[in-house]
Design a protein that fits this description.
Blueprint: E1 2-4, H1 10-19, E2 28-32, E3 47-50, H2 56-62, E4 68-71, H3 78-94, E5 99-105, H4 115-130, E6 133-139, H5 146-150, H6 153-156, E7 158-160, E8 167-168, H7 173-184, E9 192-196, E10 202-203, H8 204-215, E11 221-223, H9 227-236, H10 241-255, H11 265-270, H12 277-284
Parallel strand pairs: 1-2, 1-4, 2-3, 4-5, 5-6, 6-9, 7-11
Antiparallel strand pairs: 8-10
The structure holds NADP nicotinamide-adenine-dinucleotide phosphate (NAP).
Length: 285
């Protein structure tokens, strides 16, 4: 059986829908924290199991009989995320999961600015030590994060973001989901690590130019605000210190060039060109 954690999330649900085109529903276990959130799949024939990353026993119940697992990285931050991802790996080992695919991040290095990179680094190490065969998807940022980063700029093209001239090899979340479904239904996992990126790297000034062209915003431009002003702005929007620190670390990471890398592995998994940022942005207007 093939299981997916976070199966009702954006990436999990997209992967699930691709998986259903490739294998029988009886082979699929969708692991969710709240079964109601996957109610549209209730009659699909897949097995929906409830587990919480905070509850080791629930994870062990959910992973019983699973051969291949897609562990989608946690959406929590800090020590909670570290503990949650560790629980999933331990539960998988205990349940005899043989093969695991894990969604890491593009630069999971000791020196990374991005807080999540340290969680991913730890989880990758745990999986390597576990004896399970693995495939790591080191994902760049999703196209779908662009509207989140630039906020009101979707309406006028004026981007205020502390990313300097840092570029990002944005990738389509849907493409990543399709690629994951190919891996999950493909040959034996071969202990490999893949940089999963789009075909090009764009700075936020490049994104502003795209918005000028695509949406016709005459004032579209990127202003590189200070990291401190950005953090204050996030706090002003009601984020707490931990959340603001997380998003600020993401911007620091972009500024430091940690997402400025492209690779053809996504194209290889898809057997076609991945969607580019221009096509994504065009679809929004
Ligand atoms: N590369 C990028 O640009 C990027 C951007 C955003 C996130 N990410 C990472 O990629 C992952 C997948 O992205 P996504 O867009 O699919 O995120 P998402 O839509 O937020 O999905 C997160 C999933 O995790 C589940 N989850 C959260 N806390 C849980 C818990 N305690 N126990 C069990 N399940 C729990 C959520 O369930 P509920 O619905 O019940 O909360 C949801 O199914 C994220 O979790 C994050 O690590 C990457």
């Amino acid at each position: 059986m093939i299981a997916i954690t976070g199966a009702n999330g954006n990436l999990g649900k997209a992967t699930l829908s691709f998986l259903l085109k490739k294998t029988q529903p009886e082979n699929i276990v969708a692991i969710v924290r709240d079964a109601d959130k996957l109610s549209d799949y209730a009659g699909s024939g897949i097995c929906i199991r409830v587990a919480d990353y905070e509850d080791q026993e629930s994870l062990e119940r959910a992973l019983t009989g699973v051969h291949r697992l897609l562990q989608i990285s946690a959406s929590a931050t800090g020590v909670r995320a570290l503990a949650q991802e560790t629980r999933v790996v331990h539960a998988a080992v205990k349940c005899g999961v043989k093969e695991i695919a894990y969604t890491s991040t593009l630069f999971p290095e000791e020196s990374a600015h991005f807080q999540a990179a340290h969680i991913c680094r730890n989880t990758e190490a745990l999986i390597r030590q576990s004896g399970m065969r693995y495939v790591f998807f080191r994902n760049s940022m999703y196209h779908e994060t662009i509207p989140l980063f630039i906020g009101e700029a979707m309406g006028d093209g004026r981007i205020f973001y502390p990313s300097g001239s840092g570029r990002v090899s944005f990738a389509s979340r849907k493409d990543i989901a399709e690629a994951l479904s190919n891996v999950l239904t493909g040959p034996a996992f071969d202990n490999t690590t893949h940089d999963i990126t789009g075909p090009e790297m764009l700075s936020f000034a490049d994104i502003a130019s795209e918005l000028k062209n695509i949406a016709g915003y005459p004032e579209a431009a990127h202003t590189d605000i200070s990291p401190e002003d950005y953090r204050k702005g996030l706090l002003g929007f009601g984020l707490d210190e931990e959340e603001a620190g997380f998003y600020a670390s993401m911007a620091d990471s972009i500024r430091a060039g940690e997402f400025a890398k492209t690779h053809t592995s996504l194209e290889g998994f898809l057997g076609r060109k991945p969607l580019g940022v221009q096509e994504y942005l065009r679809g929004l207007f």
